[in-house]
Amino acid sequence: METSQGNRAAAFSRRTIVRLAGGLLAAPAVLRGAQAGGKPTVVNSIRSLTNPYHATWNRGGAAFAKSVGARYVTLVTEGNSEKGVSDIKAILEKTGGNCVINVDPNDSPDARPIVEACKGAGAFVVTQWNKPADLHPWDFNPNYVAHISFSGVPYGKQMAETLIAAIGGKGGIVALGGIESNVPAIERKKGLDQALAANPGVKLLDFQVANWQAEQAHDKVAAWLTQFGDDIKGIWAANDDMALAAVEALRADGRAGKVPVTGIDGTKLACEAIMKGEMAGTVAWDPYWQGGMGLSIGYHAKTGAFDPAKEPKDHREFYGRATIITAGNAKQYYADNFAKEEVLDWNDIWGRVTGQIQYG
Amino acid sequence: MRARAGAAASLGRLRVIDWAPLLVLVLLCGIIAAINPRFLLFGNFVRIAQAAMIPLVLAIGETFIILMGSIDLSIEGVVALGAVLTSLLVKNGANAHDLGVAGVGLVVLTGGLVGLVNGVVHVRLRIPSFMVTLGTWFIAAGIANAALGGIAVRINDPIVRGLVLQRVLGFPWGVWLALGTLALGWFIQDHTRPGRYLYALGGGEELAALSGIPAARVRILAFTLAGAFYALGGVLSGAQLGLGNAQVGQGRLFTAITAVVVGGTALSGGEGGVLQTLVGVLIVTVLANGMVLMGVSPSIQTAVQGLMIIVAVSLSIDRKRLRIVK
User: Distance (Å, rounded) from C-alpha A247 to C-alpha B228?
Assistant: First the structure.
């Protein structure tokens, strides 16, 4: 979801790409699905493969599928809700419902038709990030197995606290936000505001929206350097792409490494920047886990390892656990996650449950 | 800032309309400086120049196309492809290639190749430039995406990074490169035959063809040049962000076309030029910089940009010569 939020800004392009490329991608995927025999086909439906976040998600899905010897299919919405839903209906048709779907719905309202279609076909589905607040897994037993999300508030706050600690608890900071109407952007900003309220010695000099995009972030930071100069002690960014661009804007000014920057997403380059001392922290959602474990939870339900209807609500709608990466653990995190393919216990399906999702 | 088509008619007369974009720019700078005097710091001129260098290189390419009365939408795809190829050919964090300047040359050639495809398909298959370049936009973006599979690659080449990090006379190399590109664009436009033909094609292609201008060849050449310029913009983007990925370039198309039109080059073709485009790029860049300096709320920045476009264009349109507006 993270980097892909930026894709909305280019909705025109994405949507059109879909029309051109969508059919090409989906057709063979659907055909492959048709050949699946007894074992359920496992399907990831994600926004795109152009960003590291979903590319990693996809690798996690492939790794899980390999671990159980199931056929694996990736569906790509490219930011098009209609395509997202209709591709899922197509795969349900082709597999006769003998499949497990792990979906990051393109938009919240899409979750309902997807869940209803899966229920109708007898397939098992796990949703992540986006769904309407009044759509609950327990209303679609047993097919709607679980919904997984991550609250942006605590992580936005933790990054702000990391930044504040890095500047010694006082001074001016500036902040870069994502697309204003995006839920993750709103949540992360809320976390930043909470941390600022608790640290009166730190002043938010300015907040700018850079729409998750590196280039916009770069130019905003350059303008800030004119306006605030040395008063900028730290930079908070709502995602890693913007944080890395901020580092580059600082570098052009000879200040990279002198002004701490935090991001969110846990991308490889951000992790490297933390090891180099140019960033102070980031949050790793671990899309590899999301891509694989979402399928594993659905697969365990589908194959009868547990009955979703008997699970507590905090297993049906839960916040996952993200990893805070700072200078202290960046090296280790890099070695475990980027230097080699991540190793996860796909049977530890509830290992990262951190509480039931709160709405409103 | 002399409008070219119909130049004979207005020769010797100072037309305010031709100077409108420059006046808008000066006025804009005055307002921003009045609200925040730090706008006038030398350091800020350097930052504005840095922010303007990429849009300038892209908009020069687009100017050639718009002068002919066509449009080129492939900018973002070629920029992404250029940045990705740069990150794979020069010293980088993903493979052992270290082609340096030769790598940059290859990237620019590739951009020219995409432009050549644009031109040839557009002219030979008689497909409107809008559709052809829309297609190549996605093809180029698709190749960029396929090459990296969604990841970002760090660019470590000292020469490429030097475009942004090394300064001469206070400005980074990239800014001088962009100015060199402007000089080249101006030379092609004003002092070569194909450059002069661009205006003739934009002014009226049938007439131009009848008077012996090789319309097809000029069109193909213009698209090829534009593609090379976009790829150079991709190199600069990669240099600026220190990385290549398929998302580099997002939003650049809109800025480039806006800059060309705001500068005073008519979308209908035949009027304007690369110097006007420089003014247009500066208007767009100064406005973005100024909105941060003036403390304009992020929520209304987009709206202010839109308003500015309409104001700038409405000031610079010569309504006497427009009989029909589509």
Answer: 29
Predicted confidence band at A53 (pLDDT cuts at 50, 70, 90)?
confident
Domains of chain A, residue spans: 2-150+286-321, 152-284
Rg (CA), chain B: 20
Domain A2-150+286-321 has CATH 3.40.50.2300: yes
Q: Which fold has domain B17-316?
A: ABC transporter involved in vitamin B12 uptake, BtuC (1.10.3470)
Q: Cis omega (within 30 of 0) on the bond before A154? A: no
Q: Which of B151, B154, B293 lies nearest to residue A226, judging by beta carbons?
A: B293
Nearest one of A263, A269, A221 to A51, comparing CA atoms? A269
Residue A44 pLDDT: 97
Of B51, B249, B298, the CB nearest to A208: B298
Which of helix, strand or coil describes residue B227?
helix
Cβ A49–B289 below 8 Å, yes or no? Answer: no
Whether A214 sits inside 8 A of B248 (CB atoms) is yes
A47-51, A277-281, A349-353, B157-161: the lowest-pLDDT one: A47-51
> In this complex, which of A50, A207, A252 lies closest to B298 when CB atoms are compared?
A207
For residue B264, give every residue at least 6 positions away whose Cβ sits within 8 Å of its Cβ, in sequence order, or none. B1, B3, B18, B20, B21, B271, B272, B276, B279, B280, B316
Looking at residue A145, the DSSP 8-state letter turns out to be E
Q: Are strands A99-103 and A41-46 parallel, antiparallel or unpaired?
A: parallel
pLDDT of residue B14: 59
Residues of A within 8 A of B43 (CB-CB) are 225-226
Q: Which of B43, B251, B295 sits opposite A216 (nearest CB)?
A: B251
A54 → chain B, closest CA residue: B150
* CA distance to partner chain B, nearest, from residue A308 (Å): 34
Task: Note the pLDDT tens digit of each residue in B88-106.
Answer: 999 998 899 999 999 999 9
Q: B205 or A21: which carries more pLDDT confidence?
A: B205
Can you tell me the mean pLDDT for B33-56? 95
Class in CATH terms, A152-284 = alpha beta
* pLDDT above 80 (res A87): yes
Q: What is the DSSP letter of B92?
A: B
Residue with tokens 């063979």: A28
Cβ pair B137:A251 closer than 8 A: no
User: Would you call B250 and A218 a contact, using CB atoms and an 8 Å cutoff?
Assistant: no
Cβ contact, residue pair B150, A251, below 8 Å: no
Its pTM stands at 0.84
Interchain proximity B150–A54, CB inside 8 Å = yes
Q: What are phi and psi of A123, to 5 degrees?
A: -85, 165
Q: In chain B, what residues touch A226 (CB-CB under 8 Å)?
A: 38-39, 41, 43-44, 47, 289, 293
Looking at the complex, report in whole angstroms how far the Cα of residue B196 sits from the nearest Cα belonging to chain A: 34
Burial (0-12, 13-18, 19+ Cβ within 10 Å), A47: buried
Task: Report the SS3 class of residue A45.
Answer: strand
Domain ranges of chain B: 17-316
Same fold, A2-150+286-321 and A152-284: yes
Q: Mind listing the pLDDT tens digit for each residue in A210-245?
A: 988 999 999 999 999 999 999 999 999 999 999 999
